[in-house]
């Protein structure tokens, strides 16, 4: 579904991504792990054209989307839940969820709507008229995910969704991610929370200095003490 081949991304003269390749299939959760500053956010930003890769190719459902403007990438079926949630704090829940509607595509078979989104996050239905800034951290994360879902993506990119959240909330977020994948979505999950990533994902990548240095099943990574010590500081 999502195919990334040999991406090289720079910020000015700083070479951040060094030939990153990955594939996320329909119904799969692929987790990306790595220490701070290894390029995980740059990777998801490159996929949605927030950062412009100098070389490399990105394909969605076999169609080349490299370098397209972000709004076109969203229309074609990729949505990003950014690190730090970035909800519109002064707007209500329902207003936050109404903003992405212009991005919904008419050309794809897209069954996502507000009702389906509220079924995934019933708490948000109850809070629909509340200002996003007054929601708890966990509810804001749900809102950020819901805002991505209403665009009806085939591929969901999640940048550290567990950051700063209590373990019980993290468990709930993990379960939602697994359900979305079971429904056919392809999910790229950037995480610092090792346990959450391993519980949620079907396969895991480890990045170091802008390169993928390991890819395996969660079980194999859990048992690989050398990779954990060398690249994840565990
Ligand atoms: N807009 C930018 N301009 C210049 N350098 C940047 C920019 N954004 C990130 N960087 C640098 O690129 C490198 C990779 O950053 P990135 O945010 O992709 O890492 P990360 O793995 O997501 O880290 P974190 O877990 O802290 O979010 C870092 O050295 C960072 O300082």
Q: What does this entry look like structurally?
A:
- It comes from Desulfomonile tiedjei (strain ATCC 49306 / DSM 6799 / DCB-1).
- Belongs to the ABC transporter superfamily.
- GO terms for molecular function: ATP binding; ATP hydrolysis activity; branched-chain amino acid transmembrane transporter activity.
- The structure is a single chain.
- 35% of the residues lie in helices and 26% in strands.
- The protein is of the alpha/beta class and 234 residues long.
- It has a single domain, classed as Rossmann fold.
- The strands form two sheets. It has a six-stranded mixed β-sheet with strand order 6-7-8-3-9-10, sandwiched between helices. A four-stranded antiparallel β-sheet has the order 2-1-4-5.
- The site of adenosine-5'-triphosphate has 12 residues, from strand 2 and helix 1.
What would CATH call the class?
Alpha Beta
Which sheet architecture does the biggest sheet show? 6 strands, mixed
Shape descriptor reads globular
Mean pLDDT comes to 93
Strand order of the largest sheet: 6-7-8-3-9-10
Radius of gyration: 17 Å
Q: Low-confidence stretches at least 5 residues in length (pLDDT < 50)?
A: none
CATH homologous superfamily caption: P-loop containing nucleotide triphosphate hydrolases
Work out the number of β strands: 10
Number of helices: 10
Order of helical and strand elements: EEEHEEHEHHHHEHEHEEHH
Intertermini distance: 32 Å
Class by SSE composition: alpha/beta
Named at the architecture level, the CATH assignment is 3-Layer(aba) Sandwich
At CATH level 3, the topology is Rossmann fold
Bound molecules: adenosine-5'-triphosphate
Domain ABC transporter: 2-234
Pfam families: ABC_tran
Protein name: Amino acid/amide ABC transporter ATP-binding protein 2, HAAT family
Keywords: Amino-acid transport, ATP-binding, Nucleotide-binding, Transport
């Amino acid at each position: 579904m999502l195919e990334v081949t040999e991406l090289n991304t720079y910020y000015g003269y700083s070479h951040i991504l060094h030939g990153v390749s990955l594939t996320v299939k329909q119904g799969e959760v692929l987790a990306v792990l790595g220490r701070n500053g290894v390029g995980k956010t740059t990777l998801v930003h490159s996929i949605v054209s927030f950062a412009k890769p100098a070389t490399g190719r990105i394909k969605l459902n076999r169609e080349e989307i490299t370098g397209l403007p972000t709004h076109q990438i969203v229309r074609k079926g990729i949505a990003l839940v950014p690190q730090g949630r970035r909800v519109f704090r002064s707007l209500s829940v329902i207003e936050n969820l109404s903003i992405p509607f212009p991005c919904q595509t008419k050309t794809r078979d897209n069954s996502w709507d507000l009702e389906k989104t509220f079924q995934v996050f019933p708490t948000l239905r109850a809070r629909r008229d509340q200002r996003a800034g007054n929601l708890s951290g966990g509810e804001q994360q749900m809102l950020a995910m819901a805002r991505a879902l209403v665009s009806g993506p085939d591929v969901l990119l999640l940048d550290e969704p567990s950051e700063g959240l209590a373990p019980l909330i993290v468990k709930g977020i993990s379960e939602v991610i697994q359900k979305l994948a079971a429904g056919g979505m392809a999910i790229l999950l950037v995480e610092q929370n090792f346990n959450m990533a391993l519980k949620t994902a079907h396969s895991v990548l480890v990045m170091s200095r802008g390169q993928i240095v390991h890819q395996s099943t969660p079980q194999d990574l859990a048992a690989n003490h050398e990779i954990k010590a060398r690249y994840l500081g565990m």
